[in-house]
Amino acid sequence: MIKAIRNFIEVIGDKPIAEITRDDMLDFRQWWSERLETEELTPNSANKDLVHLGKVLRRVR
């Protein structure tokens, strides 16, 4: 879960949770898409980050 948050901050920047937008999430998903194309990663890596981040956001909102 910590890795997912670190990755998100790397892509979007460190912003308050209340300011995270749908576009931020789409940018994060796009970042993962690009990584999957250029690095030897499995979709499972991206899915884990997206699931963990979604859980965090649902819990705190």
TrEMBL record:
<dbReference type="GO" id="GO:0015074">
    <property type="term" value="P:DNA integration"/>
</dbReference>
<dbReference type="GO" id="GO:0003677">
    <property type="term" value="F:DNA binding"/>
</dbReference>
<dbReference type="InterPro" id="IPR011010">
    <property type="entry name" value="DNA_brk_join_enz"/>
</dbReference>
<keyword id="KW-0229">DNA integration</keyword>
<keyword id="KW-0238">DNA-binding</keyword>
<dbReference type="InterPro" id="IPR044068">
    <property type="entry name" value="CB"/>
</dbReference>
<feature type="domain" description="Core-binding (CB)">
    <location>
        <begin position="1"/>
        <end position="61"/>
    </location>
</feature>
<protein>
    <recommendedName>
        <fullName>Core-binding (CB) domain-containing protein</fullName>
    </recommendedName>
</protein>
